Amino acid sequence: MKVIVDQHKCVASGQCVLTAPEVFDQREEDGIVVLLTETPPDHLLDDVRQSATLCPAQAIWLAEQENREGEQ
Q: What is the pLDDT of residues 9-34, one digit of tens each?
């Protein structure tokens, strides 16, 4: 999965950071989302999906990869 965020749409609610702090952070000056990794490890994927669902600004997109490395 690849995570994409649109900082221009972000409303700084912090829901993504609460749900997946290993993947998202917020800028101190304005609270806008900061993406820590575009490709989170498998054990964080459910949290990232929940973050995208909870985002009130719909500023998080997930691009699912069909042929992930190591899968057949």
A: 999 999 999 999 999 999 999 999 99
pLDDT of 71: 46
CB atoms within 10 A of CB 17: 19
Distance from chain centroid for Cα 3: 5
pTM of the model: 0.86
* Beta-strand runs (E) in 1-72: 2-5, 24-26, 33-35, 60-63
CA distance linking residue 68 with residue 26, whole number of Å: 29
Give bridge partners of residue 4 from the DSSP assignment: 61
Say how far apart CA 72 and CA 52 lie, in whole Å. Answer: 27
Report d(CA 35, CA 29) in Å as an integer: 16
- Could you tell me how far CA 20 lies from the centroid of its own chain? 7
